[in-house]
Automatic annotation (TrEMBL):
Record keywords: Membrane, Transmembrane, Transmembrane helix
Protein's recorded name: GGDEF domain-containing protein
Naturally occurring in which organism (per UniProt): Vreelandella aquamarina
Transmembrane parts of this sequence: 7-25, 31-50, 98-117
Length: 284
């Protein structure tokens, strides 16, 4: 069955690339064979551990490793591996931070210079120009997809199976729940939870476990979570907060605010993220 996040095709492509490289090894020189084995190892490991999660940052340097291996393959046998120069288009289709893109851009330029002695000058100039256009198109397409995916992720669970959502979803839910609270006389509290960066995901999972199935947890930024707690009365809400607070780490900071006291007309995600915080044990 295909993965929910459609990574099966990417995994298949990585495995196919590993198989294709392995076919070159018997006729490769020792230096080129070493680079091929390293590249095959990277492709296989990446394919095996490939998974989708918003907890992983696209800025991790594995894109730089891909660029380094590609440069090594071309430089180890430029006369035999010149065709791999076009693989830079695939490298630049990977989501990556600016510093990783600069590194890979430099590596692509070095690859072109390595091939220069092996290709007539007119052909080399045409190849370099064509590659530059290809890389620009790849980066443009990647930027477009990241923008689209960013909008989509605002309406997706950040961790499959948990009621954990992006902060933008909270802004939409606040409007709906405020109207519902007025209509059905429900007491609603917005609980802001500040954590250390390394605690974000464990605490988010804990909050999802401690809240009801119909309540959600929201990631406002890398150190701030929020949850919208619905109770029948303020007294019940206070009791629930006390139990929830007791189950969280002691170094967490929180602030709770009744939903009806929040002015939603001009509320922004940044304002929510910077709500005043008090020590956890003082929240109840």
């Amino acid at each position: 069955m295909q993965s929910k996040y459609k990574i099966s095709l990417l995994r298949a492509n990585l495995l196919a690339a590993a198989v294709a490289l392995s076919l070159w090894i018997p006729s490769a020189e020792p230096a080129a064979a070493v680079m091929m084995w390293l590249s095959i190892g990277w492709l296989l490991i990446t394919a095996l551990i490939l998974d989708f999660s918003h907890r992983r940052s696209r800025g991790l340097p594995w894109q730089m490793l891909a660029g380094t291996l590609l440069l090594g393959l071309i430089a180890s046998a430029p006369d035999r591996h010149a065709l791999l120069i076009w693989a830079w288009g695939a490298v630049f289709m990977l989501p990556q931070d600016r510093w990783a893109a600069i590194f890979n851009g430099g590596a692509a330029l070095v690859s072109c210079l390595v091939l220069m002695p092996h290709i007539p000058l007119p052909e080399w100039l045409l190849m370099t120009l064509s590659l530059s256009i290809l890389l620009l198109l790849a980066m443009s397409r990647t930027h477009q997809l990241l923008t689209i995916n960013g909008v989509i992720r605002q309406r997706l669970r950040l961790i499959p199976g948990l009621n954990l959502w992006a902060g933008e979803q909270l802004l939409r839910d606040l409007i709906r729940e405020q109207t519902r609270s007025e209509r059905e006389a429900i007491h609603a509290d917005v609980l802001i939870v500040r954590v250390r960066r390394r605690q974000l995901w464990p605490v988010a999972q804990k909050l999802c476990e401690l809240t009801y199935d119909f309540e959600n947890v929201y990631r406002l930024n890398s150190t701030t979570l929020a949850t919208l707690m619905l109770s029948k009365t303020p007294g019940e809400a206070a009791s629930r907060r006390t139990l929830l607070v007791a189950a969280l780490p002691d170094n967490v900071l929180t602030q709770h605010t009744p939903l009806m006291d929040i002015e939603l007309a001009s509320l922004t995600l940044d304002e929510l993220s910077h709500f005043p915080a008090s020590h956890l044990r003082e929240v109840a």
